[in-house]
Design brief:
2 helices; OsmC_Ohr_Peroxiredoxin
Length: about 160
């Protein structure tokens, strides 16, 4: 793996102009589209609490998803290197945001990965590797709030 600087280019295009722009707080839509090269577009909006569309991704969803996905990718890598075969991985992550009008912010994200490993593999090692994955996760290392991990590791039946 090459070390160094990696750059990520995305475009966010606001699509919520209802004809009068931002002439008033309730006069514009919060919708936008995220694109990056030839990847599928991501329809976004603000959280419904902030007049957004509940059917579109909001920045808060995307942040929680980014933390969860980064952890998962590191975890799978570490398991593969350690000889632990992960057969299923599902995370029900939850972020908590404090809605302070002076400075809204996340107070924490809790990852709750549920993992099934191959029969005969080391379940205790599989659980410990979650802590290593957390230490290596680029996104977790880039935020200023706690990220907790409450893994459950099961061994394949049979």
């Amino acid at each position: 793996m090459a070390y160094g600087e990696h750059k990520y280019q995305v475009s966010v295009e606001w699509t919520g102009n209802r004809g009068s722009g931002t002439s008033g707080y309730r006069d514009y839509g919060r919708d936008y589209v995220i694109t990056a090269g030839s990847k599928p577009a991501i329809p976004g909006s603000s959280d419904p609490a902030f007049l957004g569309d509940a059917n579109r991704w909001n920045p808060e969803d995307l942040l929680v998803a980014s933390v969860s996905a980064c952890h998962k990718l590191w975890y799978l890598h570490l398991c593969a290197d350690a000889g632990v075969a992960v057969l299923d991985y599902r995370d029900n992550a939850q972020g908590t945001m404090l809605d302070d009008p002076r400075q809204g912010r996340f107070s924490q994200i809790v990852l709750r990965p549920r993992v099934i490993v191959r029969a005969g593999d080391d379940a205790a090692l599989a659980e410990r590797l979650h802590h290593v994955a957390h230490e290596k996760c680029y996104i977790a290392n880039s935020v200023n709030f706690p990220i907790l991990c409450e893994p459950v590791v099961e061994v394949q039946a049979g």
